[in-house]
Amino acid sequence: MKPYNTLTPAELEAERGALAAQHESYKGRGLKLNMTRGVPSLDQLDLSRGLLTCLGGDDYMAEGGLDCRNYGSLDGIPEMKRMFAGILDLEPDEIIVGGNSSLALMFDNIASNMSHGVRDGQAWRVQGQPKFLCPSPGYDRHFSICQYFMIDMIPVAMTAEGPDMDTVEKLVSSDPMIKGMWCVPVFSNPTGIVYSDETVHRIARLKPAAKDFRVYWDNAYAIHQLSGEKRRIPNLVRECAEAGNENMPLVFASFSKVTFSGAAVTCIASSKSNCSYIKQRLSMQTIGPDKLRQLMHAKFFGSADGVYAHMHKHAAILKPKFDLIEEMLSNSLGGLDIAKWTTPEGGYFVSVNAMQGCAKRIVQLCAEAGVSLTPAGATYPYGCDPRDSNIRIAPTFPPLEELRQAMEVFCLSVKLAGVEKQLALAAKA
Ligand code: PLP
């Protein structure tokens, strides 16, 4: 098929009729397929079943004679701090191990800064209207946190190397109410982009107008490569320290998509000064974390190397799904000039940019044929994609055959919305 923008109105009409008939036939099939959230599939969860039995009845002691059944050890058991330190190339005393949600750590850190400020700083909320830079498309739940705290969100374009750093530098250095910036530096949600070395260097060397500016470095997919070894980028914490921005980065990591999303361990990592400040607050919140879950993870994996070996098993399950998506998008949409998409080397998503003004229509067409997608616009602050173009595909949960069916419907819907758009453009011309 030729690019849609080269077809005559009669050819477009014929194509629309054929696609609409196919769409009708899908509607009659009663499909119920879900590509909304990036959750691990059942066979991925099964990889970690050993976690449930790795503690025997007498296994409750962590290193240094620490009884995990009891209170205490606010920042985590030594073996778990060491494991996260290994994964993030940091020192154990730069790590605070958290509960099962890194999002909760981010939420709490922002709550703390809003009400109390960073160490030696004033509460953000009393200084004026706080703002965050939001590289977009980005992770919808980051944006929801900002919305919850009524933090203004400033979208920043994503390039193939990460956020558009010219814009970031200009904004951060000129506005003291810009207090934070979201970053998913490795296999970004949803684009799969890995920040270039240059982008990391430039972030570390920012000269914020706000002395209490923080980079929320959400490393959720740090070890989620689909093939090969761990993807390495420069170490933000070290780079920031060298640039005199020691307290600027707050790094988050999570085992939600390594073991069980419902019973994982997470961490926040930062300068020793930030860690001791965070620990002060933590000591008001709890007398101690769930150390038995930490111990399970420490025993199950042994070390960071054990975690990397486990991630190869995830990759073996996920790679065929990502390959299938690439194959179906290329075969079905290649050459039509109505969509572009990412071919990520890791992470949990494929990001599709359809023709401007088509994303909502595509999501609607998919829903009518029984395929749920993340709502159009969700990848932008306030749920508002100015081009109505971006759609996030989450291929991890459905089994391969279901994914194939869902993608057939998706590709058909992209084409139908594209041909409709092209007809509307032709009518206007
Ligand atoms: N950060 C990013 C970028 C994510 O994509 C997700 C989940 O999809 C999370 C954080 C959630 O992590 P957790 O389960 O540790 O709260």
Q: Would you kindly provide a written description of the structure presented here, covering whatever features stand out?
A:
The structure is a single chain. With 429 residues, the chain is α/β, with parallel strands linked by helices. The chain has two domains: 4-30 and 315-428, Aspartate Aminotransferase, domain 1; 57-308, Aspartate Aminotransferase, domain 2 (3-Layer(aba) Sandwich), CATH 3.40.640. The chain contains 14 helices and 15 strands. The chain has helices at 9-27, 42-46, 78-88, 102-115, 124-127, 140-148, 165-174, 197-204, 236-242, 272-285, 291-301, 304-333, 359-368, 400-428; strands spanning 33-35, 61-62, 66-67, 95-98, 131-136, 152-159, 162-163, 178-183, 214-218, 249-254, 266-269, 339-341, 350-354, 371-373, 390-393. An eight-stranded mixed sheet has the order 4-11-10-9-8-5-6-7, sandwiched between helices. Strands 12-13-15 form a three-stranded antiparallel sheet, with helices on one face. It has a two-stranded parallel ribbon with strand order 1-14. Helix 1 packs antiparallel against helix 14 and helix 12 packs across helix 14. The longest helix has 30 residues, at 304-333. It is globular, with a radius of gyration of 23 Å. The mean pLDDT is 97.
